[in-house]
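Handout, section 4.2: multi-component inputs.
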Amino acid sequence: MKSIFAFYRGNTPALMGSIIVFTFILLSALAPWIAPYDAEKRVARGHQPPSAEHILGTTRSGKDVLSQVLYAGRISLTVGFASGLIATVIAVLLGVTSAYVGGRVDAFLMFLTNVFLVLPGLPLIVVLAAFLGEVGPLSIALILGLFGWPGGARVMRAQALSIREKEFVTAAEVIGESKWRIVVVEILPNMVSLIVGTFTGAALGAVMGQAALEFIGLGDPNVISWGTMLFWAQNNSALIVGAWWDAIVPGVAIAVFAMGLALLNMGMDQISNPQLKGSKNLKQWKKLNDELQANRKKKQESRKIAGEVVEG
Amino acid sequence: MSSESKPIFSVKKLVKDFPTAGGPNSIRALNDVSFELFSGEAMAVVGESGSGKSTIARVLSLLHDKSAGDLNFKETEISGFSGEEIKRYRQQVQMIFQDPYGSLNPVHTIYHHLARPLLIHKKVKSKKELPDKIHALLEEVGLTPAVETAKKFPFELSGGQRQRVCIAKTLAIGADVVLADEPTSALDVSIRLGVLNLMQKMKREHNVAFMYITHDLATARYFAERTAVMYVGHMVEWGETEDIIQDPQHPYTQLLISAVPSPLKRHQKEEKSLHVKNKDIPTWTASSVGCPFVGRCIHAMDKCSQSMPEITKISEKHFVRCFLHDGSGQ
Ligand SMILES: Nc1ncnc2c1ncn2[C@@H]1O[C@H](COP(=O)(O)OP(=O)(O)O)[C@@H](O)[C@H]1O
Ligand SMILES: [Mg+2]
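Output:
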């Protein structure tokens, strides 16, 4: 309990982000119980404005917008989290392996990462989705996950490299810990905030990506998600005929949820400390890090000087 | 006593080169380093930062490969060890690091830090024995109440307490040799003595051999029977600590001693000015020649920059490498 308070103290973005994201998770999970109508059935006349019966109005085909947006959340959130998970797992595996193994493996994995990094993401995904035809949520999660890791992998590698240099890793080697245990038990737990940050970042990208793909009509239009809601609203010229609620509601849902994820991501960035247990330690970690940097500089300099001495 | 018994470590003509980034010439961090270490005895390795002290400890800990020379542990060459041999070696040779804030993993409890060595080296028959064993270790290093301490995270402990945890780790493994790399340098002066006394106790009660790396001659005098003085990767003077301090032969040792505060020196100001007179410490490379101290030495002669002087025996256990004492020197 205490550690939770300590975690959120002075970290407003993380707190706000958590509240938003958890509210969305809760609402989506409870959709079958709190949605006033069946989201897939015609329950009223088309394009009814918000009223007591239909708080957020109805769609062109007479479905309840509130019920739809709640059910759609289940799909959109699932795709976001699943794809975030895929991207994060790949990023951790590649980044940490690259850093810890080094040498040729490192060079190859970083080459691969850089290739993926410079690939124009969304256009490529659009082409791929178009090629696959109407893609369902599962395929979207996979595609977005498989393209969403390179940025994360680079950051993971950088952090794993810096943790690898810490004395506690050397100490673990000296007491005889095995390599994989050093990675999994000694290094990875120190990367928790970065991993969570990468996950929220990737999930954010996936939610937006899914909405974009579905909005332009590459998704499966029979699935109820925020993206397809936007697609149908656009298809039925909701804004032109004055049924603003039909388009605004899913749009706002995407925007607010994305903001929640972005805030959470920011909050994680603020915690440069891998241990989430106290601010005292945070300072210590920063100090350590500074010293390490200074040390490395010194070493580089001495090497440079050595080079000059030899040449001179 | 030491000359009669067999040494635990016998290091001969050890050389360690580090490749430089983008250049064929490498930094020579250790050059022609030879010494022996005996059980129950502490040897201090003294020198300014950058003199290669940590490199010795890291080579002996198998963290770096040597470039040349012999590294015999209990009469077996250690480089080339693999798998089980490494594990058996680690069970006997342990290391304590300079920075107690960096050498414990911030995400793990003290319990974890002591449980791991016990489990890796099978010092307990089952996990059930762990708590008792860990609490006993914590009590032995003076971290009481042990049950409370075991639950803590490193950031909840002071530097001195953390260093005691590191010492407890070496005790857990039951190492015969502890390579202590400036174990007290990062600690407040007031708590250094406690940590040194704890190591003293290990030396006496468990017959542990220590390599005590420091840049502080005063603690070397307190803790170590023998001392080796290092300068830029070279051992310039070595022998019994008292001889080194009372009767320093190498100009660098004399300089170091003049830098030790009070009781050992009288004219602080004058000597300080001597200390900063010529502070160009060279970076040694594989092709460097001569005595590394020549740039700072007030007795420097021509030949000093041409070759490294051979070893001169001052007395039974006191050696120096300096042309001032070389038979042909003057
Ligand atoms: N891993 C390394 N790579 C390259 N150079 C190193 C490395 N470790 C130490 N050195 C160099 O070796 C020399 C001795 O360093 P070190 O053993 O740390 O000295 P000390 O512990 O006495 O301060 C320094 O010049 C340092 O730059
Ligand atoms: Mg050092």
